[in-house]
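Colleagues,

Please find the record for the two-part complex below.
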Amino acid sequence: MGLLSLAIWTPIFFGVVLLALGRDDQAHVVRWIALVGAIAGLAVTVPLYTGFELGTAAMQFVEKRAWIENFNVNYHLGVDGISLWLVLLTAFINVVVVVASWESITSRVNQYMGAFLILSGLMIGVFSAQDAMLFYVFFEATLIPMYLIIGIWGGPNKIYAAFKFFLYTLLGSLLMLVALIYLYTQSGGSFALADWYRLPLGGTAQTLLFFAFFAAFAVKVPMWPVHTWLPDVHVEAPTGGSAVLAAIMLKLGAYGFLRFSLPILPDAAHEWAWLMIALSLVAVIYVGLVAMVQQDMKKLVAYSSVAHMGFVTLGFFVFSDLGVSGAIVQMIAHGFVSAAMFLGIGVLYDRVHSREIADYGGVVNTMPKFAAFALLFTMANCGLPGTAGFVGEWMVILAAVKANFWIGLLAASALIFGAAYSLWMYKRVYLGSVGNDNVKALVDINAREFLVLGVLALAVLYMGVYPKPFTDVMDASVAELLRHVAISKLN
Amino acid sequence: MIDKLSWVAAYPEILLMTMACVIALVDLAVKTPLRGVTYGLTLLTLGVIALLQGLAASSGNTVYGFGGMIVSDPMGNWLKCFASIAMMVTFVYGRAYSGQRDMLRGGELFSLGMFALLGMFVMISSHHFLVIYLGLELLTLSSYALVALRRDDVKATEAAMKYFVLGALASGFLLYGLSMVYGATGSLNLTEVMLTIAGGGDTLVGSPQVLTLGLVFVVAGLAFKLGVVPFHMWVPDVYHGAPTAITLMIGGAPKLAAFAIVIRLLVEGLQPLAVDWQQMLAVLSVMSLLVGNLAAIAQSNLKRMLAFSTIAQMGFMLLGLLAGVVQGDTGNMANAYGSSMFYVVTYVLTTLGTFGVILLLSRSGFESDNISDLAGLNQRSPLYAGVMAICMFSLAGVPPLVGFYAKLAVLQALLASSGAFYVGLAVFAVIMSLIGAFYYLRVIKIMYFDAPTQTADIEAGLDARSVLSINGLLVLVLGIVPGGLMTLCAQAVAHLFA
């Protein structure tokens, strides 16, 4: 069994064990098993980083086995510079989420922890699949645990949110399925991504396929105007669900653009780049403004996620080294920052059971340690230099200015909105005098919460100060990707 | 006429019939309320037959018997093997349920069930119009009686009546159509019919118009038996009205036989008319997908919902049959029909799981057939909720469950024929499965997100519980490694054209 298989199946194995326990009267044991599983899942990804060979765009840690021989589908895994950090991030966030949900989840703990572990394995599968059908199976399978997580442990309007999440994303991916099968027949019976990169395709076919993929990935990212499911789902999902959703699941869509839309359909990607850039700018500016007027903390962060993901898609479609690398860095940075933001809201929600900004005020007086962490993450969210949030956005803006000054200018203006909504929320929740009795009764974070937020804070600072380990890994793969994008496939 | 090969080809049917009679006689001496001996003997017989069929299928031989009236080929053998297993599972799930509802006063449940299975076997093995009809009648007559087995129950008797009247009408359609095809071709043997039609005006004895008209009636008759729109009216009523154990007996294994006669009649017999029947099937499947999925949303009764879901699923299965012959090119046939076979086999597997849960949840005086009866099932029994959830996700076509690969195979067959019409059909089917996902998800929502309304303990025998676990696990495992079954179906169908 290869390392990637281990990374995928270790958490899934522990997840299945947890589900098989059946009863949850032993919640304490269940939590420890989940933690062991999550840490084991993270541990097996470490050799992926230490053994990763820099300077090559080739897939590494490749595993290939026949899976469905009838359709020539292979169990084909591999990582390159684009996916390596996403795999590591997934395993890391999984540990964070298990620890963060330690006390806040009290009912059916085994199913909760099991769902998260299985979800984590499936998402690593998405990032490492080199066969389109394998990718699709992992991509779609993630819907099942997430649907249950939202529906069972979510807020008051959880059922609406769970259905919206499932059906919205299913519609997009079913159209992608048709596109995948079409490419399979066109390529003479192959689902291998590497074969599809070489497959010549006519202009009309490329456009249709581009929009089929767009339906799947844009919904997942989510891009404006198909982002409306995200705020609803984030508000209702339990804290851990929100964190995983924002940190990893949104990246599945962005990753899909990189693996499918750009290299397989280069001509359509160039032809429709104006549309993608326009939609990204709308996300960055308009959704940023929408975030500013939110009354609900989770909704605010959800809208800010949409805005941040706008930077990612913007970076992809300026087709430059800097832009694509910046977008990938932004994906990872957003993974840390958004997870931290949602876990921070979870800390408050566990104590006060409200997400309304108006219910808080002056939290810094009763929870000074927590407020310090929150300040760091808020700053990272608005892209302060020295934090993870800065690096990616700065690279994308630089690339956008190079491509077209006005695009760059518009994108850069969004940083102001980002600062505005983030800082304004911080002011209203944390600063000032103690707002009400609930805030007065708040107890500062305990050691467990300190550990979770501390680890995330370290990651955010490290990535902001020294992003080289992140960019070094991806250089060769991004160059290779852009080489594919530059070659026309029209005959 | 009766040579040695005939015995080789027909021994499963003969064995089954003999055992059905023996078991009916033995049962006279059985006095226990749950008919333990009858039950054991039936399972043993079906198990042995399934094993023999599996072995025969693996040998890959095709044997004709009784002057070409019946055939024993890999497709038929596999279907018979799966049908026997499905029937066994049905008995395991349905025994306690039937006992509580006074349906085990005599051993009729078992002997009628075996005769129904015999009917399926004959349908699957047939290579001749009359044999097809014979098998069909044996199956449906046993089914009418089975639905009415709970004779003091108003709903069941009503369902039996409806089933009988509409079923007889359908048989009439089929017979009428077959007689017209006979009139045009002068033969009842499938191979001869095919050759005669392929020969065109030179070899036809009757007019081509009669042939086409006959085809319309044949397709209508088959559509009745498959339960596709607009010949679906009996499905919801019978599914709902029949005792659940019998619903499973009608909705499970017989789908395999229905698929077999569709292949025998349309592909083996009337393949030169593929252009005509493909159009008809296209209309049937589009309507079934639409009506089945939309009507299922409105149902509050679980069995009715599953009935409409069946209609939609059968519509999807028909899509695979559409893509076999494209503009005279028969290259895609094995692929297309293999995908339909895979669809129907996995559909039966999933159906067994869903009805199994309903059966095990019901108890004396409580049918557990409303969707709301499943409320909070996850808290009462994570195992049953898990099996039901796996089956629902599979029916909705979500990977990594086996239902996804069934849909994948059919869509792939459609797109392999690469006409704009087929791409359109594929997109339509995909959008319909999105609508379908809604009502399957609703069942999961009720089991997992709602609070329980029932508090009674869930009791079920160890046999039923373990079979149900295996059933659910298979839906998942076949989803993780679907390759074997897919290859099996493709090869079984490929033998038809070898």
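The radius of gyration of chain A is 21 Å.

Comments are welcome before we finalize the supplementary table.
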